[in-house]
Specification:
Blueprint (H helix, E strand, L loop, with lengths): L1 H8 L13 H5 L9 E4 L5 H12 L3 E6 L2 H14 L5 E5 L5 H14 L5 E4 L17 H28 L3 E6 L12 H9 L7 H26 L3 E7 L14 H9 L7 H4 L1 H8 L10 E3 L2 E3 L8 H15 L7 E6 L2 E6 L3
Parallel strand pairs: 1-2, 1-4, 2-3, 4-5, 5-6, 6-7
Antiparallel strand pairs: 7-8, 9-10
Helix pairs in contact: 5-6, 6-8, 8-12
The structure holds NADP nicotinamide-adenine-dinucleotide phosphate.
GO molecular function: oxidoreductase activity
Pfam family, one: adh_short
Keywords: Oxidoreductase
Length: 346
C-alpha cells in the first residue's frame, strides 16, 4: 500500500530518485561519458531508444545491435540528429538465434573497441506460440537465452576493458515486476513442456518466465563476475509500466481502453528509461552487483527470483543449451535429477 502511494506520488527513495525521475535526471551526476562504450539491445524503439538517446547525449559511444538494420539506421540518424558528433555503430543481431548472437559478437570483437557497458534491454511479448530456430520457446529464446549467450561471449572483453582502463564495467538486464507472476513450478520443466506443446501456450506466463530468467541470470552472473575477480557488476531493473511497441500483438480497442483507464499508473518513456540509466552510470551504484532495482532504487525480487539454487540451476541449463556443440535439432528436457539434451525428429 505504502509502496503504491510512493509510486503514485513519485516520492524519492534513498537514492534521491523515484518513479517520476527521467533518464536525463538520473544520469546528470554521471558527468561526461566520453570514455564509455555501450552496447544497448533493443534500441530501435521504446525504453531502449530513450536509453540510447540519453547515453549518447552524455557522450557515450554506442553500439546498437538490431534485427532490422533499416530500423537501426533510422535510430542512428535520430541520435546523430539530436547529438551531432555522436558515435553510433549499427550491427545486425537477432537475439532469438544463437548463431546470430555468435556472428554479432564476432563482428563486434573485430571492431577492436572497448566495452564498458552492456544493456540487455530487447524484449518481446508474443501472443502466438513459436519456437526459435534452436528449438526453444520464442519469448524465452529472445528475452533471455540470446542475452545469456551474448553476455557470456562478451564477459572477457568487459573484464579486459575494466582492467585496462580502471573503469568499472556494468551489465544491466532489463526485467520486469511481472517476473513475480511465475511461481510454484520448476522453470526449466515448464519451459520444456511449453516448448514441446505438452501444455497450452500462455503468453503472459511465458513472458513472466523470461523476465524471471533475467533476474536469476543477474544473480548468477554477479557471482561469476566475483569469482573472475572482474571489475564488472551485473544488476537488473524493472523499468515501470509504459505503453511501447512491446504489446504490439495486442493493439486494438481493448488495449487502448485498458491503457486509458490505467493512465495514472503508467510512466512516460523518459521515466521508464530512468532506472536502466541510473544503474548503468550513476556513481552511487559503483560496486553494487547482483541486485534488482525499480524506480531508481534497490528493490526486492520475488522469492523465486532471490533463490541462489534456482539461479545456478538456470545457469547450468543455459550453459548446456547454448554450447556450440548442441545440434539445431536438440531440445532440453528436464529430468528429476537435472537436465538432458535429446535429439528430436524434425
Ligand atoms: N513497456 C513496459 O511496460 C515494460 C515493462 C516492464 C519491462 N519491460 C521491458 O523493457 C524492455 C524494452 O521493452 P519496450 O517496452 O521498450 O518494448 P519495444 O518498444 O517493443 O522495444 C523492444 C525492442 O526489442 C527489440 N527486439 C525484439 N525482438 C528482438 C530480437 N529477436 N532480436 C533483437 N531485438 C529484438 C525490438 O526490435 P524490433 O524493432 O526489431 O522489434 C525493439 O527494439 C523489454 O525487455 C521489456 O520486457 C517493458
Amino acid at each position: 500500500m505504502l509502496t503504491s502511494l510512493r509510486y503514485l506520488a513519485g516520492t524519492a527513495g534513498p537514492s534521491g530518485f523515484g518513479s517520476r525521475t527521467t533518464a536525463e535526471e538520473a544520469t546528470a551526476a554521471a558527468g561526461d561519458l566520453g570514455h564509455v562504450t555501450a552496447i544497448i539491445t533493443g534500441a530501435t524503439s521504446g525504453i531502449g531508444a530513450e536509453t540510447a538517446r540519453v547515453l549518447a547525449k552524455r557522450g557515450a559511444r554506442l553500439v546498437l545491435p538490431a534485427r532490422s538494420l533499416k530500423a537501426a539506421e533510422e535510430a542512428r540518424a535520430r541520435l546523430v540528429g539530436e547529438c551531432p558528433g555522436a558515435v553510433v555503430v549499427v550491427l545486425p543481431l537477432d537475439l532469438s538465434s544463437l548463431a546470430s548472437v555468435r556472428r554479432f559478437v564476432q563482428r563486434f570483437l573485430g571492431l577492436g573497441i572497448p566495452l564498458n557497458l552492456l544493456i540487455n534491454n530487447a524484449g518481446k511479448y508474443a501472443d502466438r506460440f513459436a519456437v526459435s530456430e534452436d528449438g526453444v520457446e520464442m519469448t524465452f529464446a529472445t528475452n533471455y537465452l540470446g542475452h545469456f549467450l551474448l553476455t557470456r561471449l562478451l564477459l572477457e572483453k568487459m573484464a579486459e576493458t575494466a582492467r585496462e582502463t580502471g573503469v568499472e564495467g556494468r551489465i544491466v538486464n532489463v526485467s520486469s515486476t511481472i517476473h513475480s507472476w511465475f511461481s510454484g513450478e520448476d522453470a526449466v520443466a515448464y519451459l520444456d513442456r511449453v516448448t514441446r506443446r505438452k501444455i497450452p501456450y500462455d503468453p503472459t506466463r511465458a513472458y513472466a518466465l523470461s523476465k524471471l530468467a533475467n533476474v536469476l541470470h543477474t544473480r548468477a552472473l554477479a557471482e561469476r563476475l566475483r569469482e573472475m575477480n572482474a571489475n564488472v557488476t551485473a544488476n537488473c531493473v524493472h523499468p515501470g509500466i509504459v505503453r511501447t511497441r512491446l504489446i504490439r500483438d495486442r493493439d486494438g480497442l481493448i488495449t487502448n481502453t485498458v491503457f486509458f483507464l490505467a493512465s495514472k499508473l503508467l510512466k512516460t518513456i523518459p521515466q521508464a528509461a530512468a532506472t536502466t540509466c541510473y544503474v548503468a552510470v550513476h556513481p552511487a551504484v559503483a560496486g553494487v552487483s547482483g541486485k534488482y532495482f525499480a524506480d531508481c532504487n534497490e528493490a526486492s525480487p520475488s522469492r523465486l527470483g532471490a533463490s541462489g539454487d534456482e539461479a545456478s540451476r538456470l545457469w547450468t541449463f543455459s550453459d548446456a543449451i547454448t554450447a556450440e556443440k548442441v545440434q539445431k535439432t536438440s531440445v532440453v528436457r528436464a529430468t528429476a535429477g537435472g537436465f538432458q539434451l535429446h535429439q528430436v525428429q524434425c
